[in-house]
Amino acid sequence: MKLLIVDDEELTRTGLISAIDWASLGIDQILQADDGIHGLEKARLYCPEIILCDVRMPRMDGITMLERLEKILPDSVPVFMSGYSDKEYLKAAIRLKAVSYIEKPLNPSEVSQAVREATELYIQKRRSRRGEFLKSMETASRLALLLTLPSLPDIQTARRLSKELGFAMNNSTFFISFIIRMDTFPELSSLELFYQALSDFLEKRNIHFVYTDKKHQNLLGFLFGQTAPSSRCLREIEDFICHHLSCMGKYSMALGETVYGMAKAYQSYASAVILLQNSFFFPENTLLTPNKLNRDTKVSPDFCFTSPEIDFANSLSSELPESTFVLLDELREYFTENTKVFQNAVKDLYYKLFLALDKVRKQTFPSEDIYAEPIAEIIDRCFTFSELHQTLRQQTEYLLKHVGNQAQENPTIHLIKSYIGKHYMDETLSVKDISEHVFLSASYVCTFFKNETGHTLNQYLTEYRMEKAKQLLKDSRYRISDISSRVGYSDGNYFGKSFRKYSGLSPSEYREKNLR
Questions:
Q1: N or C: which end of the chain has fewer CB within 10 A?
Q2: Do residues 349 and 311 lie in contact, with contact meaning Cβ atoms separated by under 8 Å?
């Protein structure tokens, strides 16, 4: 906890700091101020949980300072200290709910006891406020879900819930729905802070909101009030929300149209749902409004949208791989400029394209045991169309580069690598086994491989196994001990040492880093 000491006497402040074991009281940060004005500034900046404050000070006394802080920091607990036995000050201390009133000269044990009591009171306040907040969240969630229903069939319940929240809703109340899609759903504590900050921000503009989450995928809410916000006010709200969301990861946000009356809130929600569908085709961290999509859809007349997955597979297998990238560029341009296409249809198409890519890879390199991430997981991981398309393009480039390298490679080297690709899991795999497979002596195979590739056979085998291990470590379904045996190591400790030497990390460290 943070403690703010406000006293115009420097000796009093430094003496208190040195005379008390603050850590034993749960205080890990101590702030100082020499009068009420500076105390007000420090409190606004650092939000201390406990304020140890002198009553009489120049420029601004302690009573005035705490009266101003009461609205800003309602949970902070004040402890007054004074050398004056003034009944008026005592009355003010009681009114401000000070936990104690300590007379000077100060006794460290009395101060410690007062701070201990203040700490307990602060914890009680926070628990009470959290309980009220959670109850309010539950009520707000029920109301928000009701407002998403067409024609609002249970309007009486909606009115009762709004009354419980202290909101007045009638036919002239405006409603603006918002839906936020997050890449990773935030923790409850982060959401609470976001909702509280947004509530405080909107309250200053005479706007309220209710909120919920939809199947733990989207954040859903309604802004409402008696006077619809101006375009400038709406931009301020949008900027505020976007700024706070950017701290929680990738997001897309849709703002529905403005409607009036509880029964029409669904219309705003429905328009936001349509906008959110389109958000897949826009960059991450984009906010969409009804006006943003009011533009003509551009269609490329030269692009024949029939069976691009077949054309894609044929171009991959042709002698002109450049045509593959022409097709991919046409797809990207088509879907970027035609955002009214349903995202599920696009994802289905890209699933087929990834499937075609995987099929060509297996036909071209049948002997290689290449670990591939499941296609459905790749698509689910991609937050936007741009990310999905770029992933497909990168995998296509990698495959075609691999094909090009194979064409330039010595046939014997290719046989050796293919054999290693089939047998790297065998712990007993040796240079002798490899040499017999290509009908060469062991010594000649080693020299030949080093001259052709720049690596020894053992180096290549180790690197191959380590790269396979990296791929498997990215899948949490496999235990590290199982991965060790899958890449040719029966001794888990030796595998761990080899992996650290190769990658600079232990297998568990590498997994933790890549599964975040």
A1: C
A2: no
Q: Is the pLDDT assigned to residue 304 strictly greater than 50?
A: no
- CATH code linked to domain 2-127: 3.40.50.2300
CA–CA dist 277, 515 (Å, integer): 28
Sorted by where each begins, the domain ranges of the chain are 2-127, 148-293, 308-408, 411-514
Q: How far apart are CA 454 and CA 449, in angstroms?
A: 8
Which of these, 252, 197, 251, 258, lies nearest to 223 by C-alpha position?
A: 258
CATH of 411-514, one of 1.10.10.60, 3.30.70.260, 3.40.50.150, 3.30.450.20: 1.10.10.60
* Angstrom distance (rounded) from CA 351 to CA 392: 10
Work out the mean pLDDT of the chain and round it to a whole number.
Answer: 83
What CATH number belongs to 148-293? 3.30.70.1130
Tell me: the pLDDT tens digits for 63-120?
A: 888 888 887 787 888 888 876 555 556 555 555 555 566 777 888 888 898 898 888 8
Q: What is the pLDDT of residue 134?
A: 62
Rg (CA), the chain: 33
DSSP characters over 377-413: HHHHH--SHHHHHHHHHHHHHHHHHHHHHHHHS-HHH
Residue 215 CB-half CA count within 13 A: 2
Residues 81, 83, 85, 88: what is their CA dihedral angle, to the nearest 10 degrees? Answer: -50
Cis peptide before 186 (omega within 30 of 0): no
pLDDT at 372 over 80: no
Direct distance between the N- and C-terminal alpha carbons of the chain, in angstroms, rounded to an integer: 30
* pLDDT surpasses 60 at 297: no
Strands 286-288, 251-260: pairing is parallel
Token pair in block for residue 166: 């202290």
CB 353 within 8 A of CB 324: no
Find where tokens 């003509």 sit. Answer: 296
